[in-house]
Specification:
Helix 12 packs across helix 13. Strand 29 and strand 30 form a beta hairpin. The longest helix has 16 residues. Strands 16-29-30-31-27-28-17 form a 7-stranded mixed sheet. Helix content is 24%, strand content 24%. The structure holds adenosine-5'-triphosphate and magnesium ion.
């Protein structure tokens, strides 16, 4: 391993910060006992073998989405690049919304993205709920030192006394009660002697601070609720703004990267850690919070609350619906971990919020798949083409490259015959200008096969074309010396009806019709695209074995992946991951 960033890594303000901290030896003396803990534990350790420590701290209250991928790639990526460790920490301090199902799904997705929380012999998978004991101990120390007090005001009263951006807050009548009294009440709170909302523990900072987050924020609230890991052991739960810095410090995190909305919390983050260090509960150097801009992607919603609403109300089929921007949905749709990592790399990190167009994500997928995806032919809107001068019951072999970028991938085999499937759009009874495909009297190449000349067509009673007739030119087979003897402008794909595989194909469109479906207070449900999934029965070339998760580039059509849940070789079901070009909005 070297200490230089991975080749090609573009510098950014977070890298600059880490490099400066490393150069100054800011964390060089940090002790690490091999596990999270307060000063008394870390003091028994040795200088931390990890040069930096970062963390990805999801709350297990939903599935991860593409925004989380940005944070994952950043935190794990930076730790890897600077020989550090990145912890996966479940921020499970809110018992009412959290579930084991989400814990399992998050672990699955971080692994799928290709990241690992192991560092040397450490397994850095942690749960904030494991720190409830330390947090409580710290809270008692803060009370005893006069840095916290138990307030008897109701949550509404506290809110009313907090003041505004232009007016200072007012002191609680309980703010100056003796520490002994607060301590006694805190113990009663812990022991379950008080109902929800009747008491809370608050930091004692400054009700006149210009930063509202410093106006005696609540540290603990009473919640008689069963936690998915600690059961009924606790009935007081820490607030996020207090739990988070403590979690970082217990784990010896050096760089705590979070999104910009936490910028106003940074003074409190530092205040609480400094007080705990003074009380010898934590060791210096303390973690440092730095904010970056979150990912906002157009045509999707990424708030977990809104995703939950889409799932619960049946607007989509579960958390892994291929139309959702959840990582489980993107995986099912056909996104690869490499494409998502490439997308995050292209995003970079900045300090300014912006919106990224959905097409940037799609382009990352194309760029990842183009060199590696096997090619195949599919006909999504089939129309029968009969080669009237080709003998009935005969066939002959044709071949095509498995991947034109990679000759070593070899060739795929299929056969030519009398009855073929072509795309309905590749025939016109009356061609518009510059239409070079099939119409009566015109010649086209059947890709990898022969040149044919259209001789007629058959309509049903409703006036729809149900069959096209053509004659083939026997000397023009692709790959033979006569292939160039006749010049044509059109080149169309086809599959031999005698050997085509029937498949269900799901063509996805954007889930929302508007680029910013949840802008302002707008009802995002109203912006749902009613035609976001179109199901068609298609014909596939015989080389396709639709094992769940397998991906192809269907020539001219896009990238398609066999559905992980519903596809089988006998009954293929494929999802269109993306078209070949960004055509959205251009030819609808
Ligand atoms: P949501 O708002 O969707 O519920 P969250 O921020 O509440 O997301 P957490 O589980 O707390 O969800 O997020 C874990 C980490 O992922 C946090 O550090 C958070 O900053 C980061 N994160 C969440 N959404 C984004 C995003 N859109 N872009 C970048 N990072 C994000
Ligand atoms: Mg959050």
């Amino acid at each position: 391993m070297s200490s230089v960033p991975s080749p090609g890594a573009v510098s950014n303000f977070l890298r600059t910060l880490i490099e400066k901290d490393l150069a100054e030896g800011r964390h060089a003396q940090k002790l690490w006992a091999g596990r999270p803990g307060p000063a008394s534990v870390q003091r028994q350790g040795t200088p931390d073998p990890a040069r930096i420590r970062t963390r990805f701290p999801p709350e297990p209250n939903g599935y991860l989405h593409i925004g989380h991928a940005k944070s994952i790639c950043l935190n794990f990526g930076l730790a890897n690049d600077y020989q550090g460790a990145c912890h996966l920490r479940f921020d499970d301090t809110n018992p009412e919304k959290e579930e084991q199902e989400y814990v399992d799904a998050i672990i699955d997705m971080v692994k799928w993205l290709g990241f690992d929380w192991k560092f040397q012999d450490e397994d850095n998978l942690y749960f904030a709920s494991d720190y409830f004991g330390y947090m409580y101990e710290f809270a008692e120390a803060l009370v005893q030192a006069g840095h916290a007090y138990v307030d008897e005001q109701s949550p509404d009263e506290i809110r009313a006394m907090r003041g505004t951006l232009t007016e200072p807050g007012k002191d609680s009548p309980w703010r100056d009660r003796p520490a002994e009294e607060s301590l006694q009440l805190l113990r009663e709170m812990r022991d379950g002697k008080h109902p929800n909302g009747s008491l809370c523990l608050r930091a004692r900072i400054d009700m006149a601070s210009p930063n509202i987050n410093m106006r005696d924020p609540v540290l603990y609230r009473i919640r008689h609720a069963t936690h998915h890991r600690t059961g009924d052991q606790w009935c007081i739960y820490p607030m996020y703004s207090w739990a988070h810095p403590v979690e970082d410090a217990l784990e010896g995190i050096t760089h705590s990267f979070c999104t910009l909305e936490f910028e106003d919390q940074r003074p409190f983050y530092n205040w609480i850690l400094e007080r705990l260090a003074e009380l010898d509960m934590l060791l210096h150097p303390l973690p440092q919070q730095t904010e970056f801009a979150r990912l906002n992607l157009s045509y999707v919603v990424t708030s977990k609350r809104k995703l939950l609403q889409l799932v619960r109300d049946g607007h989509v089929n579960g958390w892994d619906d291929p139309r959702l921007p959840t990582l489980a949905g993107l995986r099912r749709r056909g996104y690869t971990p490499a494409a998502i990592r490439l997308f995050c790399e292209r995003l970079g990190v900045t300090k300014a919020d912006s919106r990224i167009d959905y097409s940037v994500l799609e382009q990352a997928l194309r760029d990842d798949l183009d060199p590696i995806a096997p090619r195949a032919v599919a006909v999504l809107d089939p129309l029968k083409l009969v080669i009237t001068n080709y003998p009935e019951g005969s066939s002959e072999p044709c071949q095509a490259p498995a991947n034109p970028h990679n000759p070593e991938a070899g060739v795929r085999q299929f056969s030519f015959g009398r009855e073929l499937w072509i795309e309905r759009d590749d025939f016109r009874e009356e061609p518009p200008k510059k239409y070079f495909r099939l119409f009566p009297g015109n010649k086209v190449r059947l890709k990898y096969g022969y040149i044919v000349e259209c001789t007629g067509f058959v309509k049903n009673e409703a006036g729809e074309v149900i069959e096209v007739h053509a004659e083939y030119l026997p000397d023009t087979k692709s790959g033979t010396p006569g292939a160039d003897s006749v010049k044509v402008k059109g080149n169309i794909t086809w599959v031999n009806a005698a050997e085509a595989i029937s498949a269900e194909i799901r063509l996805y469109d954007r889930l929302f019709l508007e680029p910013h479906p949840d802008a302002g207070d707008q009802d995002f449900i109203a912006a749902l695209n009613p035609d976001s999934c179109q199901v068609v029965q298609a014909w596939l070339e015989p080389s396709i074995q639709a094992e769940p998760g397998a991906t192809w580039q269907f020539e001219r059509l896009g990238y398609f992946t066999a559905d992980r849940e519903e596809s089988s070789i006998e009954r293929p079901v494929l999802n269109r991951a993306t078209t070949l070009k960004d055509s959205w909005g251009k030819n609808k």
